Amino acid sequence: MIAFLGGTFDPVHNGHLHAARVAAQALSCPVRLVLSAQPPHRSQPEANAQRRWAMLELACAAQAGLDADDVELRRGGPSYTVDTLKALRLRHGDGPLSWIVGTDAFNEIHAWRHWRSVLDLGHLLVLPRPGAELRGAALNLYLDRRCPDLEQRPAGGIRLLEEPMLPVSASAVRALIAEGGDAGHLLPDGVTNYISRHGLYVRSV
Predict the structure, then answer these.
(1) CA angle 172-175-180, nearest 5°?
(2) How many helices (H) and strands (E) does the chain have?
(3) What is the DSSP letter of 200?
(4) pLDDT, the chain, mean
(5) Closest CA relative to residue 81, chosen from 67, 97, 68, 65
């Protein structure tokens, strides 16, 4: 089994790393953090892709079992999950593969590009996000596809973890920095130093 956690990482923070570590422990496998270079579902990131990639590498270098993955950065174009999973399948073959996603994003799965193909290509490991309970069609999909032992087959299962995630968001980190506050308690040390050195997220005067 190998698992992947995608994100804009603008910037990567302790909440992202906690989620990756929880997933790695639950699946007993390494986790690779995939930078969404051009997220199609939201406004463009404040930091460019090269800056965000540098911060992601710094964060993962200090975490055993976590690695940064530039598959979307190298491919170019919009970062659709289905296209990324196709590339990862070509790289890793037919073994079990999991894509990690929060409950908030999973609730919108039916709006994903070719979402049915996503489940043909890999499993989904769903992590609880504060204030985002599974609902509606996403809940029904989970109940239909839930699988506690994802390693038993290559793709198609959904597992929901119960451990809560840290209530940290990149938008809150950016806002704190823009206001002149200290976000060091929310970030890995290397990322804090990088942001300070390059003057990222500071409000223009």
Answers:
(1) 130
(2) 9, 6
(3) T
(4) 95
(5) 97
In this predicted model, what pLDDT tens digit does every residue of 86-112 receive, in sequence order?
999 999 999 999 999 999 999 999 999
* Whether 186 contacts 37, CB under 8 Å: no
The three-class DSSP label of residue 88 is helix
- Per-run averaged pLDDT (10 residues), the chain, 205 residues: 97 98 96 92 88 98 95 88 96 96 96 97 95 95 97 97 93 97 97 98 80
**Positions of E strands within 39-94:** 66-69
> How is residue 11 written in tokens?
């910037």
Contacts of residue 34, Cβ cutoff 8 Å, sequence gap at least 6: 4, 5, 6, 7, 69, 71, 72, 84
